[in-house]
Design a protein that fits this description.
The chain is of the alpha+beta class and 378 residues long. The chain has a domain of 257 residues: Orthogonal Bundle (Cytochrome p450). It is built from 15 helices and 14 strands. A five-stranded mixed β-sheet has the order 1-2-10-7-3. Strands 4-14-11 form a three-stranded antiparallel β-sheet. 44% of the residues are buried. The mean pLDDT is 90.
């Protein structure tokens, strides 16, 4: 195999071409060294890369600008034992009960955003899938909604790796964290500020970094999932009819999560010499674990290509695996289901008005989805 296929037309033939290429890679070159990186395609190997921190390190701070504050206290870039300590702090604050309690807020925000969509033409990502998680998570953290414009600016900076924007966000969140510690409320950031592990609280810098990660990185999965689920409704009329008639929104969201993960690939660094599928991977090598490929591996999901609401066993690595399993996964699914529910109740039919645009690797998620919505009874 030579190089990657062209990553174009990912709403149609290009997506089929990519999945076929990944299937060939799993069979012929399960570990492919290309462009200075070892690409890993089989589900078993991807799971190992994601979960075995002895062999594959998540500490990628050396790859970031030295001024990027989000690298400090960032759970996704930590290995045990530092990761273990910080995860224990987050687990005390980010509980299943607190996530479940946010459901009415998510439904309220979803209804508000969907009600404001101009039916003749709107961008689902810009107008709905993007603002919903930022607003919901900001409220969850206890941040003022009037600051939403700043959060959006920082989110754009985060996606572009803008160190100045990340530093500005970190300073703001550090000030808020200090206030929450002095006068805690019932919000998530207050719980982070007052949580302790072995009798010691997190530092203000750590709380700011954790909050920034939850605010910004936390929205990526939800935005991607909402766009992927609604896109399937647009391009598969039979699927759309079944989802509406049989109330299969949760199955729609779960299958969209499997077929189009928010990150097609994630990066780790080999901590020692090892092998994957019989291929040597030297210490220090950059390793790209292809979640998209793993989710379409027949070893994980028989007959993986079709989008099936009735899939009997829906297994995926979209939220990671092992110690880095995404804590916000259940929240993302609640948010996506609430949005899809609000959309199908307002619109009887959705029509794609322009070519769908996608982000480049490592995500390949939908960046722009321009739609028109036909109201019920019209």
């Amino acid at each position: 195999m030579v190089g990657f296929p062209a990553l174009t037309g990912l709403d149609g033939a290009g997506w089929t071409r990519l999945l076929r290429w990944l299937a060939d890679a799993r069979r012929e070159t399960p570990v492919l060294e290309l462009a200075g990186m070892h690409h890993v395609f089989r589900a078993e190997d991807v799971r190992t890369v994601l979960s075995d921190s002895r062999l594959f390190s998540s500490d990628r701070t050396r790859l970031m600008p030295p001024t990027a504050q989000l690298g400090r206290g960032n759970l996704t870039m930590m290995d045990p034992p530092d990761h273990t300590r910080m995860r224990r702090i987050v687990n005390q604050a980010f509980t299943p009960a607190s996530v479940k309690g946010l459901a009415p807020t998510i439904e309220e925000i979803s209804e508000d955003l969907v009600r404001g969509l101009p039916p003749a033409r709107f961008d689902l990502v810009r107008d709905l899938a993007y603002p919903l998680p930022i607003r919901a998570i900001a409220r969850f953290l206890g941040l003022p909604e009037e600051e939403y414009g700043r959060f959006r600016t920082w989110s754009i900076g985060f996606s572009r790796g803008d160190a100045m924007q990340l530093d500005a966000m970190h300073r703001y969140l550090a000030e808020v964290a200090a206030t929450k510690r002095a006068r805690p409320g019932s919000d998530l950031m207050s719980r982070l500020a007052t949580a302790e592990v072995d009798g010691a609280p997190a530092t203000i810098d750590e709380i700011a970094s954790l909050s920034g990660l939850i605010l910004l990185a936390g929205h990526v999965t939800t935005t991607s999932l909402i766009a992927a689920a609604v896109h399937e409704l647009c391009v598969q009329p039979t699927l759309d009819s079944r989802v509406r008639a049989d109330n299969r929104i949760e199955d729609l969201v779960s299958e969209a999560l499997r077929t189009r993960p928010a990150f097609a690939q994630v990066t780790r660094i080999a901590a020692q010499d090892t092998t994957l599928s019989g291929v040597a991977v030297p210490a220090g090598a950059l390793v790209s674990a292809w979640i998209l490929s793993a989710n379409h591996d027949p070893q994980l999901n028989p007959d993986p290509q079709p989008f099936l609401l009735d899939r009997p066993s829906r297994r995926h690595l979209s939220f990671g695996h092992g110690v880095h399993y995404c804590l916000g996964g259940p929240l993302a699914q609640i948010e996506a289901a609430a949005v899809v529910d609000a959309v199908v109740r307002r619109f009887a039919r959705l029509t794609v008005l322009a070519p769908v645009e996608f982000h480049p690797l490592p995500t390949l998620s939908i960046r722009r989805l321009v739609l028109a919505g036909q109201a019920h009874g019209s």
